[in-house]
């Protein structure tokens, strides 16, 4: 979750501390309206003590001001007019404040982000403190009922002794009938008086014991109420949130975090529940030992039923999947998963280690399972190595089963619905086991379902399967019927999902900016508006996302976006992180941006027409007119031959990266070092990229742009396949032996 979203939820003193971070030096409105951009920048990589880093800080300042100005321009309406003026004022104010000392801006924002993160972290710890307090209260209540139970037991034992005394007196009275009348009259009054005294005491003490029993049952009821409340917080809040984080981690979200704290809470619950269960059973034993008419029998039955329900919920809910199987699952491929019982160690389940079985089932079978319909022996495929014994790890106190070598041998698919493809069909891995607690006193059958998996048989299906998984992970709701997801979502929701995925795949803190997301919205909805507010209430359907092809293209929105991620991840990561790639800019926007810049200015944008392509657009002066040129898109295949930085180095007419950065300043650190001297008379060949002379290109464009052998595509883009043929021919020539300039002929 973004820090700013969490910071807005702070309360009390923490909220006041957060508000005090802002002022004229950095208005809180700037933090609010540029929150995504601010958190997406690499502030920490700038060394505040190094004056040479000032140019980086200056770039960030300029970008911040540009973002503010863009945000201001997009405000409409009466409220928007006032905000437009305010944001424009803030842009001028920040430029005036930090233009001569941009490192101070970086220092200010780093301090703000660090403090916000600390306040959010401390607020999160408050819930932990409350849990600790609740457990302490439960401990005291359990200790109190233990003391009361011992007191009850002591009093009952004394009552039984007195009851035996009353029986002895009665026996003596009965035996008087055998005595002579004189002797009977002499002894009987004393025995009758003693019996009356004992019986009066027994009657009084029986009422007292009954009251003790009722008071104890009432205290147990209060303890169980607090136990259930605390268990609900842990299982329905904390554990569900952990599972949600685990699901979002599948989309590239932050790691779900360890289970150690959750396990310690669950173990405390288990220990307290078990102690109270044993107390209730002892109270029941005392009642059976000395039955006294009254409501206590029914109360104890209710308590026993309640405590059994509580421990059952705890055990079944804490049988979880610690490491999920891959959500895109290829047949005949090894995969792993780990299941864990959070209360296994505390309840001594490991004394008779249970076995866990894994089965793949369909979405329909998962629905039937949760409805408790009979699905025994139903499966949708065959998994090899699908049985594993749970192991107890003494050092960590964890009980888990590690499936290390599972493999899906075959899959049985369901009949597809409508336009649904095989990569939209969802399955799940069912893990199930059975074990006993308390020496077979309680036997539990536990089951847990993995996150949805999409089964593929070929790598070409991976792209579409990933789309299904992304949509499900992003928009699934807790407690849903398997595996229902909304058919359409708000565009900002989808933006959050694809931004999270993009940052994770590219392994970058630089996410998608608001301008990038506007570009994607234009592509998705075929709308030309540059105002992000125009898209905030728009919805995108699953079909628009990855069923229906984009206008005038033979691929879907997701297929295009996934191609961009793959290309950036494999070949462009450092350049994206450096901010050298604008990327999400169309051809017309590139032309508008470049025509106002000096000749030789260029930018890098992702291809609109090709999946996983990036092109260079640059402005140049020709004898007839000034033009913006676009190279045919590079793909992974091209970068496996020569890197982007080296290609830019090869093209001497490229001088400045948009807006005005000398290209060597940006790319020189990525250039391949010059070739070394020849070894054994051979010099290593080098491929270099060349493009035709621009005047020749213009002639080609005007005369033969429709010819299949032209170096330009129909949009005026250079076709690098032809230029690379020249380079490969040079490479062949260089492979031949070098003559005497390297010391004589070689063979």
UniProtKB/TrEMBL annotation:
One of its GO terms (cellular component) is cytosol. Keywords: Activator, Cytoplasm, DNA-binding, Nucleus, Phosphoprotein, SH2 domain, Transcription, Transcription regulation. The keyword Transcription applies. Residues 576-674 form the SH2 domain. GO terms for molecular function: DNA binding; DNA-binding transcription factor activity. It is found in: Cytoplasm; Nucleus. The lineage of its organism: Eukaryota, Metazoa, Chordata, Craniata, Vertebrata. InterPro entries: p53-like_TF_DNA-bd_sf (IPR008967), SH2 (IPR000980), SH2_dom_sf (IPR036860), STAT (IPR001217), STAT5_CC (IPR046994), STAT5a/5b_DBD (IPR035858), STAT_linker (IPR048988), STAT_N_sf (IPR036535). This is Signal transducer and activator of transcription.
